[in-house]
Amino acid sequence: MISRQFLRENPETVREALRNKGVEDVDLDRVLEVDEEWRSLKNRGDDLRHERNQTSSKIGELKAEGKEEEAQAAIEKSQELKAELEEVENRADELEDELEAALMRIPQIPHEDVPVGEDESENVERRREGFDDMRELPDEVIPHYDLGEELGILDFERGAKVTGGGFYFTKGDGAMLEHALIQFFLEVHREQGYTDVFPPVPVNSRSMEGTGQFPKFTDDAYRLGESNEAPYDDDDLWLCPTAEVPVTNMYRDEILLDDDLPLKLQAYTPNFRREAGEHGTETRGIVRVHQFNKVEMVNFVRPEESYDRFEGLVDEAEEVLRRLGLPYRILEMCTGDLGFTQAKKYDIEVWAPGDDMEGGPEEGGRWLEVSSVSNFEDFQARRAGLRYRPERHESAEYLHTLNGSGLAVPRVMVAILEYYQNDDGTVTVPEPLRPYMGGRERIEGHDPVGESALGAGTEE
Prior knowledge:
Layout: H1 4-9, H2 11-20, H3 28-64, H4 68-103, E1 124-129, H5 144-151, E2 154-155, H6 156-162, E3 169-170, H7 173-191, E4 195-197, E5 202-204, H8 205-211, E6 237-239, H9 244-248, E7 255-257, E8 263-272, E9 291-301, H10 306-324, E10 328-332, E11 344-352, E12 366-375, H11 379-384, E13 387-389, E14 397-398, E15 400-408, H12 409-419, E16 427-428, E17 442-443
Parallel strand pairs: 4-8, 7-13
Antiparallel strand pairs: 1-10, 2-3, 5-6, 8-9, 9-15, 10-11, 11-12, 12-15, 13-14, 16-17
Helix pairs in contact: 3-4, 5-12, 7-10, 7-12
InterPro entries: aa-tRNA-synt_IIb, aa-tRNA-synth_II, aa-tRNA-synth_II/BPL/LPL, Ser-tRNA-ligase_type_1, Ser-tRNA-synth_1_N, SerRS_1_N_sf, SerRS_core, tRNA-bd_arm
EC number: 6.1.1.11
Domain Aminoacyl-transfer RNA synthetases class-II family profile: 139-430
């Protein structure tokens, strides 16, 4: 969250950020009024405590001097001051709760370099990579969802039967490809200096608040044991929407040392998202699903180094696509498409040639976001109590957090199945993945299983 001091000193900057990010459900004037009244009450409380302490200290002196009437008056005055102080403190506590709740709904202030725009149509393409030396593609590239079923490596119908829409099976070489990508991603990032973390999958509400998913985006989460509409407590559990949540909260309410920074952690997790409000978007295949695998990179850094590290993080995510030989582009988010928590964000979008889309490259196909690289500055750190001590004798300060997917597995699989597709319907396995797939050079498919393979029905 933003600091109260920043809000007080820069209300117009906050107002502009709300406008540029398209946030309309925050009454900033009310927030400022609450903060002003809260500060006034805190000052009044300090005055009352000081006056009551002075009055109480006189009572014993007056009694010792035999001034009973004056002592009694001082006692009554002390009781009046106590009652007024309780009233002031109770009101201040109410305003404190209202102010904290309001601050949790104010988004991060965009970095001054972020382009101003209303929506994704005004994002800025920074560069494209890998299009100068593309491999030769079939005359007609089969979309991954059709090819995956033909090869017997993707099974959407049985995924929906077992769990529901938006879930799927990978099988045989498809499952091996998914495992290979996870291991490859982790190995590349180890070379880049990342430490592995294997976090718990359920996360509590406090953790979701710490990284900014809550209270604004509860509809997108999978809650354990209760409906999303019911009020939640700090210790209620939710399925992990991204490893950003557990890994960032590892050090919640702790103080790191300067020698610990920069701290670079990576984690593989399955991720679960309801994708609420995404009706009407492309739902065929494994582009937008409710469970998907991802490797996430999380960085804790000194504030003065965070934007250099941001550029480094982009390069570290790109390295995976460079080694896989997949064409991609870098897109900078404008203010209207910048997330609630981010000060600056780049998306890395891989090229998948199987389906044409509006705004795709001249070669056809579509862009698929495989990584969002974000600098949160101290926004998450304030919510999660993440601090570091520059010197052992100095006061602790809020650090900066960054993260980036490295990468989202299903969409990279889509790109591989379509970009490395051959005329005969097989798929060439990118060379860096072959050691993780038992040396396989091609995905050639699997025979169907069960009576359905013979054209028979599955029910008696």
